[in-house]
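Issue: ligand-bound run for GLP - logging full I/O for the record.

Environment: standard queue, default settings, no custom constraints.

Inputs:
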Amino acid sequence: MEKNDVQSPLSSLDKDGFIPLYYQIQQALLEQIQTGKLLVGDCLPSEYELARSYRVSRMTARQALHNLKSRGYALSQKGRGTYVTRPKLEKNIMHLRGFTEDMKQRGMMPSSRLLAQTVLSAKGVLTEQLRVEEGSAILQLRRLRIADGLPMAIEESNIPLKHYPGLERTDFTSESLYKVLRNKYGVRAAWADEVLEASPATHEESELLSIPKNAIMLSISRVIMRTDEIPIEAACSRYFGNRYRASIRVPTTTIE
Ligand code: GLP
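Outputs:
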């Protein structure tokens, strides 16, 4: 990929002003990203190139790149240099929204690649999570979840079919699971138990999400319940840590 030119640096840096030089460089690069002059995947100038063209120390250049990276606008990869990325999506884990609805609310276009849609017999931990008997039919979906063309997560959903007959015939390449459950089966979600964990990407995950080997993944395992206390779904969503971060508003009880 072509390296983009840094715009005429000497005229744009205010070297005697109050605003730190690293910040001015960071903002100049950010402006190029926000106005679309630099696109996701484009290479950013290296620390050395920035230092040379802006006539600043490498430390100043490094700070500017570091700040862009920590704000999620850039990522460095061995052999590839530093390139433009999209800032992390903030996932409010207090919301029981499905992926499709969540992405639409952010103004993004959701889509899925169906990796597997199978009916299997419940066993082990799934029987406990979904409160079903051993051997009862479970619909298992594995989907690559995509937003605006960018792969965001790999999700595995397990849904007990005894409550939703015929669900296995739905075309989940295009349908939203939660929408079908709501519209066709009148399901109303009440609450969910979620467990968050960090772990390295598997080989398959790094291929599917086009991310570095062993990249850190944010795993969210969820058992979501109906208002009548019947489990709807046991799921595990695996997000690339660089594209997502979890947030939560903690309700106050008392401050101790
Ligand atoms: C979220 C949840 C998954 C759920 C999915 C449904 O991502 N973490 O557990 O399966 O939403 O999404 P959709 O309604 O788009 O199929």
